Amino acid sequence: MARSTPLADMPVVLTSLVGLVIVWAAASWIRADATILPSPAEVWTIIASEAAAGELGKHMLATIRRVAFAFSLAMGFGLVIGIAMGLHAGLNRVFGAWLVVLLNIPALVVIVLCYLWIGLNEVAAITAVALNKTAMVAVTIREGVHALDPKLTEMSRAFRMSRSLRLWHVILPQLWPYIASSTRNGLAIIWKIVLVVEFLGRSDGVGFQIHLYFQLFETGYVLAYSLSFVALMLVLEYGVIGVIERRAVRWRQAALA
Question: How many Å separate Cα 231 from the centre of its chain?
């Protein structure tokens, strides 16, 4: 069965989001207390005001920068570790327990330790976020390697493909769904961890603003900054990640056709 295209999915996605906004508006009207649950219109007014003042853009860019650096490090190291452990059973036996330990250390503990060991700076913030996600990427990619089609591997050996060619033309195409899943989950998790990092020890960013307005009991501003970044993640999900994922698995659809 053919998959729908991002363009074909868009009306359904937009309708779903409009429905969510309607539910929010109804809940706000029933509550009738803007200090507890402001309406979508009130939050939009705050977003427009902060954007016009330049504050929204400044703090969004600070968070985006941290997310980008941490995401790149986590995906890079996670891919290398996951592929290595998936291809070599010995490495998996020796270091598998390390991944379990890293997966089960709370993100807050890693953040606090990085701030204590490195200091309240950008290096500590990005390191803490990257460490929290690297193990998760590595585990996902390792499982993807374990799920590789052995027939394709045998075929590559029969044609005497080099390791680099086998990696590029046989292993990576089969791993794309796992890479896309890691990318999607990584972005969703990393930006939340970045907000905690900014909440605890940064002087700018969306997390810092949420902390500031939390102290001032400004629910509307907390929602405005949170939803602004959620909107950016939605654009990345449907406008970038989804498109890349569909193109990456075209070979599989062609093979099934």
Answer: 13
Residue among 139, 109, 112 nearest 201 (CA): 112
| Count of helix runs (H) and strand runs (E) in the chain | 13, 0
Q: Dihedral, CA atoms, 102, 69, 61, 200, nearest 10 degrees?
A: 30
Does 36 fall in a domain? Answer: no
| 180 occurs within a structural domain | yes
Among the listed residues 188, 218, 193, the one whose alpha carbon sits nearest the alpha carbon of residue 205:
193
Which one, of 22, 28, 18, lies nearest residue 219 by Cα? 28
| Domain, as residue range, for 190 | 56-256
pLDDT band at 247 (very low <50, low <70, confident <90, very high): low
Backbone angles phi, psi at 205, to 5 degrees: 105, 165
CATH number of the domain bearing residue 101: 1.10.3720.10
- Per the domain annotation, does 107 fall within a domain? yes
Is 97's pLDDT higher than 60? yes
Q: What is the DSSP string of 42-64?
A: HHHHHHHHHHHHTHHHHHHHHHH
Cα end-to-end distance, the chain, whole Å: 9
Report the number of distinct structural domains present in the chain.
1
Cβ of 16: how many Cβ atoms within 10 Å?
Answer: 9
Rounded to whole angstroms, how far apart are CA atoms 191 and 229? 9
| pTM of the predicted protein model | 0.80
Contact residues for 180 (Cβ-Cβ < 8 A; gap 6+)? 241, 244, 245, 248
